[in-house]
Amino acid sequence: MRKVTIGLALGSGSARGWSHIGVINALAAQGVEPDIVCGTSAGALVGASYAAGNLPKLERWVRSLTRFDTARFFEISASLNGFVNTERLHEFLNEYVADDNALIEKFAKRYAAVATDLEGGREIWLDRGSVLEAVWSSMSLPGLFPAIRRDHRWLVDGGLVNPVPVSVCRALGADVVIAVNLNGDIVGRHLEQIAPVVKKNGGVVERITDLVSEYAASAFPPKKDGEKPPGLFDAIASSVNVMQDRITRSRMAGDPPDLMLAPRAAQIGLLEFYRAGEAISEGELCVERMLPEIRNVLGLR
Q1: How far apart are CA 287 and CA 33, in angstroms?
Q2: Residues contacting residue 281 through CB under 8 Å, at least 6 positions apart
Q3: Which pTM was predicted?
Q4: pLDDT tens figures, 217-230
Q5: How far is CA 252 from CA 9, 83, 172, in A?
Q6: Which residues participate in catalysis according to the annotation?
Q7: What share of the chain is helix, strand, coil (3-state, %, to 5)?
Q8: CA 47 from centroid of its chain's CA atoms
Q9: Is the pLDDT of residue 140 over 80?
């Protein structure tokens, strides 16, 4: 009897993406080891670390993150291509995902990352070549990361076109696809966030947000006392949430997975990477809640 090929589609979600670590760990505890791993944005990063055998090391590091550690990954760039400290990000990817010479085709598992062609808007599947280029391209959220040049294209975040890459898993040969959707119940949630990424001590995020908010307030004075426009990153986060929620719903309707896992991590903000412990725990709990269906679909005892 032919072995069933299992595909794992890890969705986009920025800081909520650490939930994927918990999902992978909990599935492994049940004896579920995917043969194919496809990811978009944060899912591409976690998926690549898993395929490279570095997931335990990544988990230890993200659990140790603090607000200050998170803030050190951001800076005001003179080129205005983005607010991410690319040198520090490169060091992080080398240490916890893969080195510069690592190739996707050398992985024991089939792997692919999804990116978006900035000029043509096409969905690009990166399943060969440099691991780091694929991951970086897939997670290059406009406004935060600079676009990545690869194969004569400028590539940005794959969440713009395929937030949960079920279709990629099937194209690579998966018989059963387990999808991890981080985009459920997130619309408008970032406008409710109270705690900023870093306390107001001159951090990059706060300085930029304050400048934009002050400009907006002066140009369009609030009509009600105390009513202020959303901060820059609140507006970006909520806009991304609306877009990814709508795209995810549309893609899932046309190509539903065999199993859908939806961690309840909407309370974690776009850049709150220091809340990894919460996200990982919710990923594990999500698998526990779905165990009866997982066992039924995969024929597990």
Answers
A1: 14
A2: 22
A3: 0.84
A4: 444 455 555 666 76
A5: 12, 32, 18
A6: 41, 157
A7: 45, 15, 40
A8: 10
A9: yes
